[in-house]
User: Fold this.
Amino acid sequence: MLTTRLRPAAVVAASLLLTLTACGGSEDDAGAGGSGDMAGMEMSAMNDPDATPADEVDGDREKGEFVVLDTAPPGSDEVAGEAFLAQDDSGTTVTIRLIGLEPGVDYVSHLHDAGCAEGDGGDHFKFDPDGGDVPPNEVHLGFTATEQGTGQATVTNDQRVEDGAPSIVVHPAEATDNRLACADFS
Assistant:
């Protein structure tokens, strides 16, 4: 189960909005308001600051370095960071840390089902391929960049991804078609 400080209904609502707009959704998919972006969305629904970061979890751990993608918004050349994925008996924990971001901007990230070189990460990873597009069937992370242009998020899920999520992709919430960076787990 996704671990957050919000009530489950808030997590589902935020995740639904995320899923409808993330990684290539159209304005028509955005639902009421038709903004086609995630501006103003509650980023804490996809970030648990009290969770143990993935690089500190005992168990199987993988690390990836973010690389800027060709689809990144202009001015993103300095973006860099790390992603960590840990799996243990209690499930999966994912942590991302980035620098070089635009201060005050909301960002979202998802585990993906292909490597970064394979179509910029492929599609969102789903625990059940026939299941829904919201947690706990998907792993979503979100954060707002600090005044220094840094950002981080950690989420947990009570299921293990095993080897099904080889990468993670991050993009600005306002520009869901502009995949910013991708990290392959190794």
